[in-house]
Write a structure and sequence with these properties.
5 helices; mainly alpha; elongated; about 65% helix
Length: about 110
Amino acid sequence: MKKLITLLSVCGAIVLLTQCSPKIPASFASTATTPAGKVDEVKKHYTDDQVAQGKVIFQSNCAKCHKLKLPETRTVDQWEQILPSMVHKAKLSSDDAGMVRAYLLENAKMS
């Protein structure tokens, strides 16, 4: 009986923790595996105006909580790791998150 209760407790904890983790917006779904491929994919899906709007969203939302980092201070892969949690904390819509991602990746270091 103790094993069953322990097993159920562990399963419950796993479910709870997975529900609390940041969700990755659909705009972050990428089939590209290389940094250059990710940037190319972004350029196909976002116009220059949308990238410019992403810059404005980045500057106005991210500066509320911390000093802004220039996009070129991080690599594409570093931005990809940082963005999901920051988008969640900033409560950005999927569209806004996609434009911010496009701005950052287009201006990030490749490696």
